[in-house]
């Protein structure tokens, strides 16, 4: 299995970035071959907490990793250790607007929509920082997701209420390096990208 350590391959998509459906297929296949080494985990933690302008009162929302997504539990575990409040998304029936339930080391979990784990807690919170899964990203903060629009709808809703910091957590190999991603009016841009190799602010 490939990792994102220094010994791993460097592979970036270019012209094909304009074809979203083909890119999704390509990136799903690529992402399944990636994983985090111990050094990668340490670098992700360092990049996230040293670069981002976090406040001690911030509520950090992550996601439960699935289908090869970069494992955000590395960040959430460290955030809990540092005293931050954390949350995970909950897919509400009949809506593309995600809710966020409290998450901690001892949280009871259940299997929600799409077979993804979510907190069983009925409480709902409004995050300040949303860590977003992705299939690909570009140098301008554009993100390619799974195509369901859940995070675009949710970020638009949250940003209408207050400033929200949207952070894409990814492997460096997921960057669409030479050709910008094709975006639409409803697409929500990221504020930051964090990979084991670097941090990008937009």
CATH homology group: NagB/RpiA/CoA transferase-like
Low-confidence stretches: 1-18
CATH architecture group name: 3-Layer(aba) Sandwich
Radius of gyration: 16 Å
Q: Count of DSSP helices?
A: 4
Strand content: 15-25%
Description:
- With 202 residues, the chain is of the alpha/beta class.
- The chain has four helices and eleven strands; from the N terminus they run ααβαβββββββαβββ.
- Mean pLDDT is 89; it is low at 1-18.
Task: Name a few traits of the molecule.
11 strands; two-stranded antiparallel ribbon; 202 residues; Rossmann fold; globular; alpha/beta; 20% strand; seven-stranded mixed β-sheet; disordered N terminus
What would a concise description of this structure say?
With 202 residues, this protein is of the alpha/beta class.
Helix-strand layout with pairing:
Layout: H1 20-31, H2 38-51, E1 59-61, H3 73-81, E2 85-91, E3 98-103, E4 109-111, E5 117-119, E6 129-132, E7 136-137, E8 143-144, H4 150-159, E9 165-169, E10 192-194, E11 199-201
Parallel strand pairs: 1-2, 1-6, 6-9, 9-10
Antiparallel strand pairs: 2-3, 4-5, 7-8, 10-11
